[in-house]
Write a structure and sequence with these properties.
By secondary structure, this protein is an alpha+beta fold. It has 2 helices and 4 strands; from the N terminus they run H-H-E-E-E-E. The strands form 2 sheets. Strands 1-2 form a two-stranded antiparallel sheet. It starts with a helix and ends with a strand.
Length: 86
């Protein structure tokens, strides 16, 4: 795998590599994981019974842009990026 070899070579040369790149260079695990709760982008999701859902691997993650005001007395609109997970 070229990415793993490239990152290993860079680390051996003393280069600084971000944790996200190191994690992406690792092979996927063969161990299945399941969670009954999830917290992401300010949303908390809880599954009542994991036995009802044999497989569940779907969802939407998006970033939207919206004009917002900074406070109740502010008239200046700013363009904000809002993350959505659902």
């Amino acid at each position: 795998m070229w990415i793993r070899a490239s990152i290993t070579s860079a680390l051996n040369d003393g280069d600084t590599i971000g944790k996200d790149m190191v994690h992406m260079s690792m092979p996927p695990t063969l161990e299945a994981m399941s969670y009954q709760t999830m917290y992401a982008y300010g949303n908390h999701t809880c599954v009542a019974s994991a036995k009802e859902h044999l497989t569940s691997d779907c969802g939407v993650v998006a970033t939207f842009e919206q004009e917002c005001i900074l406070g109740p007395n502010d008239q200046i609109l700013i363009l904000a990026k809002l993350n959505y997970v659902g």
